[in-house]
Design brief:
Layout (H helix, E strand, L loop, with lengths): L12 H22 L1 H9 L14 H4 L3 H18 L1 H7 L2 H23 L5 H30 L4 H27 L4 H25 L4 H7 L3 H4 L2 H8 L43 H25 L15 H24 L13 H8 L3 H6 L16 H25 L9 H29 L1
InterPro entries: ENT1/ENT2, Eqnu_transpt, MFS_trans_sf
Protein name: Equilibrative nucleoside transporter 2
Subcellular location: Apical cell membrane; Basolateral cell membrane
């Protein structure tokens, strides 16, 4: 709820700004993983004119393990900056963190777009690209955490809009890929147009952020007193877990928070007979209460990142050369995953099953391990060890549907159940722990992808 004396958000400009900022935070991750076939093509050819944005090439490019490295180097910064939050947020002003991150991400995406037109041998091209992935992911982690800090001062509606923007980032990247492939221009121009798209998105994010101080509604909420601002950003991700009334979560593996109720004026409900507990509760005590839910969250993301996109991006259509083969992976891997993942996350808005006391949750999470061999036994060309047991496209599409829906639902469910397992004054610590374990699961999955790739 908005404060009664708050000004109106004229023409919903602040809401639109936060929606675009949410989109901008996850465009880098999604545009890089969706373009894995393009990077594989560049690494497989010494002549950049032979590159193809949507074609899967595996043999020479596989020597670089590019899809494994891009997954790992996209997730490690999230874990590292989760651990370094307190130092960064105390030393660097909020405006510097947000604008600086956006500008660095923009410059690195411009570099990626320029490289489309530049002939670079596979080795240097690989080094430049993975370095860009690392720095873009690092600054994206800083950007996302800083914006969550600002959302802590805004009404909950703006958190929902921010999350909606994040949720569309993956779908937007997949659609941009399909549009560039279907444009009819040559492959090089198609790739250039694809990488210019996130540059425009980041520029729009910069404009939106710069416009906030000029909007009366934004100034009203973002003008925090120094005593209120200190340490607020550190705890925002945890505070966003505290509401049980709405159950919406982000729509990408890299989204590390669950903003559910951000109303700064809403006082937490405290039982009359329960005395106020001074200080922060023990991390060890909170961990003992939520350890099983946290472990489930780690396992969900470990399974997801161990095969997506490292293994799933290698699957090709068994239909043979043609238009469907060219569009198969962008549609059936990236677009399908993001749409169904979004659907799975939205299901927790209607029901939460199993509940926090049920032992079915670990069973459901454990069953997702089966997706690892299922995807590895799909139609991946030039495998050397494992056979192909599921060559038809229908198998891969079915596996991806179940894989994406279960990822979205179980991630949302675990993030919603954790605050219910602790006392109200312990929810902040529970949220902080869940954020850490989310990042840990992402990093573990990205690391395991190297092993699974080697077993093919």
């Amino acid at each position: 709820m908005a404060r009664r004396d708050a000004p109106q958000d004229s023409y919903h400009l602040v809401g639109i700004s936060f929606f675009i900022l949410g989109l901008g935070t996850l465009l880098p991750w999604n545009f890089f993983i969706t373009a894995i076939p393009y990077f594989q093509g560049r690494l497989a050819e010494t002549n950049s004119s032979a590159e193809t944005l949507g074609a899967n090439r595996t043999s020479p490019a596989d020597t670089f393990n590019f899809n494994n490295w891009v997954t790992l180097l996209s997730q490690l910064p999230l874990l590292l900056f989760t651990l370094l939050n307190s130092f960064l947020y105390q030393c660097i002003p909020e405006t510097v963190r947000i604008l600086g991150s956006l500008l660095v991400i923009l410059l690195l995406f411009i570099l990626t777009a320029v490289l489309v037109k530049v002939d670079v041998s596979p080795g240097p091209f690989f080094s430049i690209t993975v370095a860009s992935v690392w720095f873009i992911s690092s600054f994206s982690a800083v950007l996302q955490g800083s914006l969550f800090g600002q959302l802590g001062t805004m009404p909950s509606t703006y958190s929902t809009l921010f999350l909606s923007g994040q949720g569309l980032a993956g779908i937007f990247a997949a659609l941009a890929m399909l549009t560039s492939m279907a444009s009819g221009v040559d492959a090089q121009t198609s790739a250039l147009g694809y990488f210019i798209t996130p540059c425009v998105g980041i520029l729009m994010s910069i404009v939106c952020y710069l416009s906030l101080p000029h909007l009366k509604f934004a100034r009203y909420y973002l003008a925090k007193k120094p005593s209120q601002a200190q340490g607020q950003e550190l705890d925002t991700k945890a505070e966003l877990l505290q509401s049980d009334e709405k159950n919406e979560v982000p729509n990408s593996p890299q989204k590390a928070a669950l903003p559910l109720d951000l109303d700064p004026e809403k006082e937490p409900e405290v039982e009359p007979e329960e005395p106020q507990k001074p200080g922060k509760p023990s991390i060890f005590i909170v961990f003992r209460k939520i350890w099983l839910t946290a472990l489930c969250l780690v396992l969900v993301f470990t399974v997801t990142l161990s095969v997506f996109p490292a293994i799933t991006a290698m699957v090709t259509s068994s239909a043979g050369p043609g238009k469907w083969s060219q569009f198969f992976n962008p549609i059936c891997c990236f677009l399908l995953f993001n749409v169904m993942d979004c659907l799975g996350r939205s299901l927790t808005s209607y029901f939460l099953w199993p509940d926090e006391d049920s032992r079915l949750l670990p069973l459901l999470v454990g069953l997702r391990v089966l997706f690892v061999p299922l995807f590895m036994l799909c139609h991946v060309p030039e495998r050397s060890r494992l056979p192909t047991l599921f060559p038809q496209d229908a198998y891969f599409i079915t596996f991806m549907l179940l894989f994406a829906v279960s990822n979205g639902y179980l991630v949302s469910l675990t993030m919603c159940l954790a605050p219910r397992q602790v006392l109200p004054h312990e929810r902040e610590v529970a949220g902080t722990l869940m954020t850490f374990f989310l990042a840990l699961g992402l990093s573990c999955g990205a690391s395991l992808s190297f092993l699974f790739k080697a077993l093919l």
